[in-house]
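note to self — DONT lose this again. spent like an hour looking for the file last time. sequence + predicted structure for the chain T wanted, 126 res
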Amino acid sequence: QVQLVESGGGLVQAGGSLRLSCAASGRTFSWYAMGWFRQAPGKEREFVAAISWNGGSTYYADSVKGRFTISRDNAKNTVYLQMNSLKPEDTAVYYCARSSIGTIPTRPSRYEYDHWGQGTQVTVSS
């Protein structure tokens, strides 16, 4: 059973930075693409970023492109989300997720990911 545990969330002022981490259990972490999603109160869970199995490819939502960077360390079974120039509209619960394939899913949809963490809260004050 794969377990994903996010950490690194918190309260930050607009313009600040946070780095989220997601630690995965199991020996097959390096086989699969990973993604980050977020969900604000009253809104649908939305795609943020994804990374292929070896880190060679990344993909971002337009809303975070140029501000967020996804990376992974397969030796540590961990995926990261570096978030810079944070805005109040980035406030949400952030989830990491594991895809069922090694390449980034064609559709940036939550339904392309089959394992999820419990989420970590990110709050950006204005």
